[in-house]
Amino acid sequence: MELEEKAEEILEALWIRTEDKKRPLTLDDLEVTEDKPIKQLLDAGYISVSDDQVVLTNKGRPEATNVVRRHRLAERLLADVLGTRDMLIHEKACKFEHLLDRGLDENICSLLGHPKVCPHGKPIPPGRCCQQEQTQAQRLVSPLSQLAQGQKGKVAYIYAPESSKLQKLMAMGILPGVPISLIQSFPSYVFQVRQTQFAIDKEIADAIYVRLVREATTGETGEEQAHRYRRRRGRLARRFSLWWSRRR
Contacts from 99-107 at CB under 8 Å and sequence distance 24+? Predict the structure, then answer.
């Protein structure tokens, strides 16, 4: 059953409210101007309404989780691949999430290295591709702990729920956009940021997500490698923009 956009937005709002453990939403809170989205969700068995309060059912929770996942993956894609600025990310992701076909979200997730959080630091619900650790799609973003020795890239984002871990990383100069390379992975992870090298454990290495520069082909210089990566990223951005403009 294909839901209309407003129905999916309702599921997303209910999921977030449930996760935050706040009071249930009412019909007035949802600001629904017509009955069709609510009726569609009721007919599908995704929500229940009692005393004007709207709650997710057991059947509706997986569907709502999928909507939230697609939205936050869309934000990650817009930020990491297309370089969309923060003020525009949420607005564009709201449109893009409704266009993601089933299965495409898993390809995007694999491409981005199965990110754990959106650009705003909110958790991205894992999909089947995360649980099965599929690697068919070539990644653009990967944890530092999964880089090969000598592999280079730029910091895409940091997944550090604990403030102490975040402060430690920031003190090392680990910030989005900073060039980084992995020097060794055993017995500890040693990486270089600019002219400084640091040794860290796997937990810290898992928290640093790197936008990769692909391995060079035989005889390819570092400059040529970086140029090839930028061209590939540009082609991906143009194809995505063209596809999106046709779907709107």
Answer: 99/244, 99/247, 99/248, 100/70, 100/73, 100/74, 105/66, 105/69, 105/70, 105/73, 106/134, 107/137
